[in-house]
Write a structure and sequence with these properties.
2 domains, 56% helix, mainly alpha, 8 strands
Length: 370
């Protein structure tokens, strides 16, 4: 048994009791299942250094585990992120997705259905450890007239409540994507704005992709294959984010037109067709394509909001980076400071601070939180 497990289990139980009290009786089964799964993950974690000491460990696994340890050290020392004991251990996950996320949105507006949870507040999704339960929830929301999406998630963060282990399913990712995921999750551990998932995920997306560029550039050199690949993913992020802003503007114009709902639903089919055609034009330009698989699902508002949550205003974050002379640590500090001082609209604060490096209007924003 790994030292510290009883304490971790007690912390889990304390959090579960608080969550059940706050969420009401209807949420007891859901919270209990989540606590069980999180507890199992924490109970089965093993120090990465202990795994690396095993004889016969395959070369690919060894390289990726060593990369994780290097990335967490880089994130702490060079990026200023809160690391503590996170990702110093690994826990086995015997499936590709650790959780299945359900999203729902009104059919005539970019307004998601919001679920409330203790600690994190209102969020535009609900996670299930069972795919069948996730799909049952989606079917229930569809029966109420909502667009829905069920998608797998390969990682999640406890937001600093626990020393999150590396989930073994992440070892299937290439080193560049793996580094970005670790830095992304460590940003969540460092800062989380309650009830504003769009800001939290978009900021973490930027920090993760930009941080991966810095990591491979500084550890392997700018001309290394991994540094070039990380740069390509980062630049693809910006291309895809610009495309999404244009798509969002088209939908917001339609949904704000004042037309009858039936007419809006008829016209949105044409708008979605246009968006797919626009995506087909930029798809050959995107690196790390699995991140941008917009053509994987038939388009609806839940699908669009899923991408908007992660890619909103990436260009403005990048502009801050330029103003900070490509000092990502300074940019991260500024992002967090701006969000703390302007919690009601951090995207506007980011845009205002980045204006010297921008030639864009104030940001549009779909209502994905609060």
């Amino acid at each position: 048994m790994t030292a510290g497990r009883p304490g971790a289990t007690l912390r889990i139980l304390a959090l579960v009791v608080a969550a059940v009290m706050l969420s009401g009786c209807s949420g007891v089964a859901y919270v209990a299942r989540a606590a069980y799964e999180e507890g199992r993950i924490l109970w089965n974690r093993e120090p990465i250094n202990q795994v690396l000491a095993r004889p016969g460990l395959d070369a690919s696994t060894r390289e990726k585990l060593e990369t994780v340890l290097q990335v967490r050290e880089f994130a702490r020392d060079r990026l200023g992120l809160s690391v503590d004991g996170a990702y110093a251990t690994v826990s086995p996950v015997d499936r590709g997705a650790v959780v299945y996320v359900v999203m729902a949105a009104r059919r005539d507006s970019l307004k998601p259905y919001l679920w409330w949870f203790p600690i994190v507040g209102y969020v535009p999704y609900r996670g299930y450890f069972s795919e069948s339960r996730a799909r049952a929830e989606a079917e229930s929301m569809e029966a109420k007239g909502y667009d829905t999406l069920v998608r797998p998630a390969v990682a999640f963060s406890s937001l600093g409540f626990f020393a999150d282990p590396l989930l073994s399913n992440l070892l299937k990712l290439d080193r560049v994507v793996l580094a970005g995921v670790i830095i992304h999750e460590l940003f969540h551990r460092t800062y989380f704005l309650e009830s504003d998932v769009m800001f939290d995920e978009s900021a973490a997306n930027f920090v993760g992709t930009r941080g991966a560029v810095d990591f491979f550039t500084q550890t392997e050199g700018a001309s290394s294959a991994d540094a070039k690949a990380a740069r390509a993913v980062y630049e693809s992020n910006l291309v895809f984010a610009r495309f999404l802003l244009q798509a969002e503007a088209k939908l917001l114009r339609l949904y704000g037109s004042g037309l009858p709902k039936n007419e809006i639903l008829k016209r949105r089919k044409r708008v979605f067709t246009e968006i797919q055609a626009d995506y087909a034009k930029i798809k050959p330009m995107l690196s790390g394509l699995e991140r941008f698989d917009l053509d994987k699902h038939p388009l609806n508002n839940a699908v669009m909001l899923n991408y908007m949550l992660y890619f909103h205003d990436q260009g403005n974050f990048a502009a801050l980076e330029r103003l900070n002379h490509d000092d990502t640590r300074a940019t991260i500090r500024q992002i967090i400071d701006l969000a703390k001082r302007n919690p009601s609209d951090p995207f506007y604060a980011i845009w205002e601070a980045s204006r010297p490096a921008l030639l864009s209007p104030a940001p549009l924003r779909a209502s994905a939180s609060r």
